[in-house]
Amino acid sequence: MQGKIILLILNSIGFVTVAAFSNNAYAQEELHQKTLYEIANHTSSHEIPSIPVGKGPSAIGVNLNTNTIYVANKEDNTVSVIDGKNNSKIGKDIPVGKGPSAIGVNSDTNTIYVANLLDGTVSVIDGKNNSKIGKDIPVGYMPSAIGVNWQTNTIYVANLLDGTVSVIDGKNNSKIGKDIPVRDMPSAIDIHIFTNTIYVANLLDGTVSVIDGKNNSKIGKDIPVGKGPSAIGVNTNTIYVANKDDNTVSVIDINNNKNIGKDIPVGNGPSAISVNWITNSTYIAERIDNAVSVIDSKSNKVVTRVMFNVEPFNSGHIECDNVKSPSPLLQQFYLYSGAKCTAKPNPGFEFVSWQSNLNENSTQLLQAASTPSI
After folding, report:
1. Which of 300, 336, 301 is nearest to 321 (CA)?
2. Residue 278 confidence (pLDDT)
3. How much of the chain exceeds pLDDT 70, in percent?
């Protein structure tokens, strides 16, 4: 199956940068040919100029059915709407509550939910005409994250300062029951649609709380993760948690809600996470490094950056997984475990050996070729 991933990057000056790449075999080729800087900044031949939105854009939601993008603007209390067909803004910005900081979309009902951090409410937008519906819904204190279960038409809101999760019925856009207590400063939330389970990352005590969506009650003990969990992503059988204070990613097995192995080291300040179910890859945005790490969800290992130097520089090139580096000098690849790299000489040359530059700057023979001819 082929598809397209639309990556939208929020800029503090009030623009949204849009980059698109095919979600198929060629996407991996493009990834191999990019540096982490290019991935993080989305510099690409497919890049589209920035789209002006409101002030302080802080969150994005996408309606996959209508190909419409919604941007919450924290500093002017509005939501901007972008048409994904031509990547242009639609109409005037929609006024919502104070400090909109999170946004969730129910693509089935074409309804958008906006968590307003500063007034403890959720605004509801009708995607048919991009106008606000009814009064804002009161939730907990400083709602900072929102998740939508489109199968049950239920919305979950993590309230940062009172350690709770509010539940909203999407049928009538009203709150259901009392807020569910979790732990200190719930800062991120995601939902496993097929198991109807909600996972909440608690920033201050380094745990993940689990909520059963059937009865909206907490399940078992909180799961310990790393320090400062600030983002969470759901894959088919695993949950990934970005821990911003110890620069790791924790992995949780959904079958028993227990940690899988040791936390995975990544770059500095992991602050956002996204899972691609189709390619089975997890992307970690690192705020301090201005970079993105990629985790292979099959092995739960970070995709490795490998640098090659061919001597002399015009003697040939390296191909990894049948992808050729575009540069003859300091050839750089991002490789999954099990990748194969081949040295291919130019006419008149033969490669004699592979050598590895280790941490102690010594040299290790990897593989020797046959004796070179004249």
Report:
1. 336
2. 82
3. 76
In whole angstroms, give the CA distance from residue 165 to residue 155.
Answer: 10
Report the C-alpha gap between 23 and 39 in whole angstroms.
Answer: 15
Domain 4-303: CATH architecture, name and number where available: 7 Propeller (2.130)
Residue 372: per-residue pLDDT: 39
User: Both tokens of residue 162?
Assistant: 């009172």
DSSP E strand boundaries for 134-269: 137-138, 143-149, 154-159, 164-169, 174-175, 180-181, 186-192, 197-202, 207-212, 217-218, 223-224, 229-234, 238-243, 248-253, 258-259, 264-265
Tokens of 362: 């010594």
Encode pLDDT of 147-166 as tens digits. Answer: 999 999 999 999 999 999 99
The Cα 179–Cα 159 span in angstroms is 9
In sign, the C-alpha dihedral spanning 182, 160, 8, 27 is negative
pLDDT in tens, 269-315: 998 898 888 888 888 888 887 777 888 888 888 876 666 777 777 78
Domain with CATH 2.130.10.10 in the chain: 4-303
Residue 355 burial (C-beta neighbours within 10 Å; 0-12, 13-18, 19+): middle
Q: What are phi and psi of 204, to 5 degrees?
A: -80, -30
Assign 3-state DSSP to the chain and report helix, strand, coil percentages, each to 5. 5, 50, 45
| Cα–Cα distance for residue pair 41/66, rounded to 1 Å | 26
